[in-house]
UniProtKB/TrEMBL annotation, chain A:
<dbReference type="Pfam" id="PF00443">
    <property type="entry name" value="UCH"/>
</dbReference>
<dbReference type="InterPro" id="IPR001607">
    <property type="entry name" value="Znf_UBP"/>
</dbReference>
<dbReference type="InterPro" id="IPR038765">
    <property type="entry name" value="Papain-like_cys_pep_sf"/>
</dbReference>
<dbReference type="InterPro" id="IPR018200">
    <property type="entry name" value="USP_CS"/>
</dbReference>
<dbReference type="InterPro" id="IPR028889">
    <property type="entry name" value="USP"/>
</dbReference>
<dbReference type="GO" id="GO:0016579">
    <property type="term" value="P:protein deubiquitination"/>
</dbReference>
<dbReference type="GO" id="GO:0005634">
    <property type="term" value="C:nucleus"/>
</dbReference>
<keyword id="KW-0863">Zinc-finger</keyword>
<dbReference type="InterPro" id="IPR013083">
    <property type="entry name" value="Znf_RING/FYVE/PHD"/>
</dbReference>
TrEMBL record, chain B:
<dbReference type="GO" id="GO:0006406">
    <property type="term" value="P:mRNA export from nucleus"/>
</dbReference>
<keyword id="KW-0539">Nucleus</keyword>
<protein>
    <recommendedName>
        <fullName>Transcription and mRNA export factor SUS1</fullName>
    </recommendedName>
</protein>
<keyword id="KW-0156">Chromatin regulator</keyword>
<keyword id="KW-0963">Cytoplasm</keyword>
<dbReference type="GO" id="GO:0071819">
    <property type="term" value="C:DUBm complex"/>
</dbReference>
<dbReference type="InterPro" id="IPR038212">
    <property type="entry name" value="TF_EnY2_sf"/>
</dbReference>
<keyword id="KW-0811">Translocation</keyword>
<dbReference type="GO" id="GO:0015031">
    <property type="term" value="P:protein transport"/>
</dbReference>
Length: 568, 93
């Protein structure tokens, strides 16, 4: 249980035979003409890349050691820190010359001074990989060095990741690059379309809740990649009637069709109505919907119509995207005996109300809501729990934590309060909750909150999440309107039904969020295994070939025999 | 090099070599992210860069630095100054 491997999710690596990692170097694209000129000389180019690699690799591994060491004071390791060659200050962010062995500081401008004096052209800030060009007198961009930087940092982190099998390190990430056959096919048989998929959705009569959730699906990288890679083709589906996967496939086809006009997701509504349980409001077909309710109904529906979905440990697209696990640990106050129950989860609902001990005056944050629920032990009211060991039923404490973090984490901030079952008495909590564009959830996992296990939690990148969609509810409880923000790469857009506008990050973060969607920066994956159906198909083909050969041989023999008979 | 500089270099060295520097930076960043400082600076950098006619790193730093320094919440600043002071005192006999 000490392995973070339990946090691994179900993303399967591409089933291709292992090859050494290749870095795909695209066409040169740089903001600096001096760098482009230097790169035309092959030997100068490889010398510079070699130097760049060693500087960035050093910084990446030093950084990993430090973050590990700063967490665990027990294994404090002394690393010889480099110092500035000019002023001898210890370099926390060294700037390294790419033409000699000089390392200097940025702050006192010693690195730049070195380039001037020695007539060297380029230096790198090793921690961020940023290139400084002396002739431009500024930092410059190069796509080659940029992708090299990403690759080096990823492989440095991969070396510290453990796999499901203890002791084995994680298989290196390999970028897919088309071979000649793929390339020919792509050139002759395909047309390029924009990969941005930004299209407004028409309001079909109080369907703004649905529209925001559909936008959250469209901008969800895991769902998008699944449907765009044709894993469920609605034209080939065997049970297309009321199939939500087909509806999703049609939606993605429409969104990425290149047509800029707003799209009306007409066919999803009747499928939702027919597929929902009679208890849900969607069966009525007219109610002003709650976006979270729509989200839950919709993902359940996709899950149900997914071919091969199961009730437990399902690997459908919904479960491999949203499923995580929560552990609730109850400790008996008398004998300290603890029992842990693990429950699956698809999303997290956070209470906005409650006693906040640590933030007296501060506004509530996503972290403070999470802390209240997921790290602190909560006293159980007496007589609600009986210890199975000593039989005591008082003083027990309960603590929730993430046992397995999902690839996409969906939060609902409980803004709608229902005091009674009667919906008309409900009211909306309008207080703002601050949420970050990036967050690290290590502290809320079963490992992170347990001080003994922290040495096993692995590098931070396992717990980093990026915000990609925010659903907002504007107006009052019963006549409000839903809008959302969604991110494509590093740009944010606001979606208000059919209207799509560019947005700033500050607008997104200042909005009164109702639902938040975060995606994990580093997805876990299984080691490369050839899928069993491919293996059996190949075996079958091999057997078929042998049978054919045998048949041919018998036939040949028979002909030979016949010939012999004729001759004799 | 003045005596003050030499002292600074020596203390800075102890900070980094004992791992205190990284410990402080890590927890400072965590706190600043929760207060929204990191995101607001990121947003401001991006929007300033977007609106600059000719993008220059030095110029961008000049516009951002006062904002970045000035917008650190008082509570966080006090807490980390205290942490640094404590380490300093433990280092000076």
């Amino acid at each position: 249980m000490s392995q973070p491997a339990a946090l691994t999710d179900q993303i399967v690596a591409s089933p291709s035979p292992p090859k050494p990692p290749v870095i795909v170097i695209h066409e040169e694209d740089s903001t600096c003409s001096h760098l482009v000129a230097l790169f035309t000389n092959e030997s100068a180019k490889s010398a510079l890349i070699k130097k760049y690699k060693s500087a960035v690799t050093w910084a990446a591994s030093a950084n990993l050691h430090k973050t590990q060491a700063s967490k665990h004071t027990a294994k404090k390791r002394r690393l010889a820190s480099p110092t500035c060659d000019a002023c001898h200050v210890v370099l926390t962010r060294p700037v390294v010359c790419l033409e000699c062995s000089f390392a200097g500081c940025w702050h006192n401008a010693h690195a730049v001074a070195h380039l001037r004096v020695s007539d060297h052209s380029f230096a790198v800030e090793a921690k961020t990989g940023a290139i400084f060009c002396a002739s431009c007198d500024d930092f410059v961009y190069s796509n080659i060095l940029d992708s090299l930087y990403d690759h080096i940092n990823l492989s440095a982190a991969e070396k510290t990741l453990k796999y499901r099998d203890p002791g084995k390190i994680k298989e290196a990430y390999r970028q897919w690059s088309p071979d000649q056959k793929d390339q020919d096919f792509l050139q002759t048989s395909t047309t390029e379309v924009s990969s941005q998929g930004r299209r407004g959705l028409l309001n079909l009569g109080q369907t703004c809740a649905m529209n925001t959730i559909l936008q959250s699906f469209i901008h969800n990288p895991l769902l998008r990649n699944y449907f765009l890679s044709d894993k469920h083709n609605y034209k080939l589906c065997l049970k297309p009637k009321d199939c939500m996967c087909c509806e999703m496939d049609k939606l993605f086809t429409e969104i990425f069709s290149g047509d800029p006009a707003p799209f009306g997701a007409l066919s999803i509504l009747p499928v939702m109505w027919r597929g929902s349980d009679s208890s849900s409001s969607f069966s009525e077909g007219y109610a002003q919907h709650d976006a979270h309710e729509f989200f839950i109904s919709c993902i359940q529906h996709i899950h149900r119509t997914f071919k091969g979905s199961t009730e437990s440990s399902c690997n459908c697209i919904i479960h491999s995207t949203f499923a995580g696990a929560l552990a609730s640990e109850i400790v008996c106050g008398k004998c300290r005996f603890s029992s842990t129950q693990v429950d699956p989860m698809l999303d997290i609902s956070l209470e906005l109300k409650g006693k906040d001990k640590d933030s007296s005056a501060d506004e509530p944050t996503l972290h403070s809501c999470l802390r209240r629920r997921y790290t602190r032990a909560e006293k159980l009211p007496p007589k609600t729990y009986t210890c199975s060991k000593c039989g005591s039923n008082s003083d027990a404490t309960k603590r929730l934590s993430f046992r397995k973090l999902p690839p996409v984490l969906a939060f609902q901030l409980k803004r709608f309060e229902h005091k009674t079952a009667d919906k008309s008495s409900a009211h909306k909590i309008t207080k703002p909750v601050r949420f970050p564009a990036q967050c690290n959830l290590a502290a809320f996992t079963s490992f992170g909150s347990n001080s003994e296990a922290t040495s096993n939690i692995g590098p931070d990148i396992l717990y980093d999440y990026d915000l990609f969609c925010v659903v907002n509810h504007e107006g009052a409880m019963d006549n409000g309107h839903y809008t959302n923000f969604a991110r494509f790469e590093d740009e944010w857009y606001r979606f208000d039904d059919d209207k799509v506008t560019h947005a700033k990050l500050s607008q997104v973060l200042a909005s009164n969020a109702y639902m938040l969607f975060y995606v994990k920066r580093q997805l876990d994956y299984h080691p490369v295994i050839r899928p069993s159906y491919v293996v059996s198909r190949e075996k079958e083909a091999q057997r078929e070939r042998e049978r054919e050969k045998e048949k041919l041989q018998t036939l040949n023999r028979e002909i030979d025999d016949d010939l012999m008979r004729l001759l004799t | 090099m003045s005596e003050g500089d030499a002292t600074f270099i020596e203390i800075h060295k102890r900070f980094t070599e004992k791992g205190e520097w990284d410990k402080i930076i890590t927890s400072l960043l965590e706190r600043l992210n929760e207060t929204g400082w990191v995101d607001s600076l990121r947003d401001k950098s991006k929007e300033s860069a977007r609106s600059m006619e000719t993008l220059r790193f030095e110029k961008l730093m000049e516009t951002l630095n006062p904002h970045a320094q000035g917008s650190v919440p008082e509570g966080v600043r006090a807490e980390f100054v205290e942490q640094i002071r404590k380490f300093l005192e433990s280092q000076i006999e």
